[in-house]
Amino acid sequence: MLAPVASIIFVITVIISLIAFSNENLYGKLMLHPYNVSRGRYIYTIITSGFIHKDWMHLFFNMMSYYFFAFQLEPVLGHWQFGVLYVLSLILSDMPSVVKHKENYSYYSLGASGAVSAIIFSAILYNPVATMMILPLPIPIYAVVFGVLYLVYCSYATKYSRDNINHDAHFYGALSGLMITILFHPGILPGFFSQIIEKVQSLIH
Questions:
Q1: By the 8 A CB rule, do 91 and 47 touch?
Q2: pLDDT tens digit string along 119-172?
Q3: Which of 194, 195, 190, 120 is nearest to 154 (CA)?
Q4: CATH of the domain at 106
Q5: DSSP states of 68-102 as a string?
Q6: What is the model's pTM?
Q7: Which end of the chain has less Cβ packing within 10 Å, N or C?
Q8: How many whole angstroms separate alpha carbon 63 and alpha carbon 9?
Q9: Looking at the 3D structure of the chain, how many domains does it have?
């Protein structure tokens, strides 16, 4: 199997999410509650909240994005490196929310979006000029262009959006993916920039 760690994470996330859909007690115990976490209670939810989802649609889109990128990323990043990237990104993507909402007792957060963002951005470092179809755009765009637009949107939405989506987790998850990948494979940056330069040159000529 080329991606055993990615496969295990995928299966565990789907199973726990499905169980939590019909078990409100478990659902509540696994959700991230910054008010409690900032006071040293239920620290484990920083990780467990990444294995449950709001509804079927939330689970479907996260796992679809995960599927398209994770199983290609693990063989090039490394097996244990992929596991560390995923778990560490879950933690790092949630920490800003813990700090930001530590006095907001009614705020909760859940979902694998932060870690999935990390997986996507790690993959972009390896292949920045791959083309991606992003709904509702009718044309493919380069992965690196998507990455820039994604970060800009998340930064804007963090400040102004009122859609109950944790855009902080998306933003910091993406940054975590970039940072951790570069720490594991520092030599990736020259290849990243050379691919972009070659693509720009080919488009010009």
A1: yes
A2: 999 999 999 999 987 766 678 899 999 999 999 999 888 887 666 678 899 999
A3: 120
A4: 1.20.1540.10
A5: HHHHHHHHHH-HHHHHHHHHHHHHHHHHHHHHHTT
A6: 0.92
A7: C
A8: 10
A9: 1
